[in-house]
Write a structure and sequence with these properties.
Helices cover about 35% and strands about 20% of the residues. By secondary structure, it is an alpha/beta fold.
């Protein structure tokens, strides 16, 4: 699995990148890695991280016993970070997961890997619960929320197919691995995610994660 941990913390308004911010006394990335290791103790993992923060992570890795996992310098975009991380993996089915999603459930992880093994890929999603409006050309209109899903990680794939997809050139709309895979001509398989599997990107997310991790620690 590639763990994407290249954030710089701008939206969190913190000098410390969001993956290193402590929640209940433990860095977010540690919560996430513990959850994944609970799912599969021998899982192969590579952590893609901004070069400026690798030394900082290496100290945390020793403190929390994660030094066995390889670290690669992240690239200019998420696309390049995942691309670098994939090169070090050898498993037939691989996942890509955000370091700041510490509340992914064991059930979601299992669904993603099992479905990808059989159908070639799996992307976890949850329903949209808010009303939506589309803004275009100075006008806006209501959209049917039943037609949309919120996309989560881990996104899982046959490794060779995902590596091939990452050989195409980077495009700005490549915001996740599913968009890269789809652009290479593959159909995306959706599976149920879990609502708690939020991506912690704002102070409000941080408060919610703190509460949820107290109820369901990694």
């Amino acid at each position: 699995m590639v763990i994407v941990a290249g954030g710089r913390g701008s939206r969190m308004k913190s000098q410390l990148p969001k993956q290193f911010i402590e929640v209940n006394g433990i860095p977010l990335i540690v919560h996430t890695l513990r959850r994944i290791r609970r799912f599969h103790g021998d899982i192969e993992m590579t952590i893609a991280m901004h070069p400026d923060w690798i030394a900082y992570w290496n100290e945390l890795a020793m403190q929390y016993d994660f030094q066995a996992y390889a670290v690669v310098p992240g690239g200019a975009e998420r696309f390049h970070s995942v691309q670098a991380g994939l090169e070090l993996l050898s498993a037939e089915v691989v996942g890509v997961h955000d370091a700041v999603r510490p509340l992914v459930s064991i059930e979601t992880l299992q669904r993603c890997f099992d479905t990808a093994a059989i159908q070639g890929n799996a992307v976890p999603v949850v329903p949209v619960t808010e009303s939506l409006r589309r803004i275009e050309g100075g006008f806006n209109r209501a959209e049917a929320r039943d037609a949309y899903r919120i996309v989560q990680t881990p996104q899982c794939f046959h490794r060779r197919d995902l590596l091939d997809a990452y050989q195409q050139g980077y495009k700005p709309f490549f915001t996740d691995d599913a968009s890269v895979f789809e652009a290479a001509g593959h159909a995306i398989r959706l599976v149920d995610g879990n609502p708690e599997n939020i991506k912690v990107t704002s102070p409000q997310d941080l408060m919610l994660a703190e509460h949820l991790l107290k109820e369901n620690p990694a």
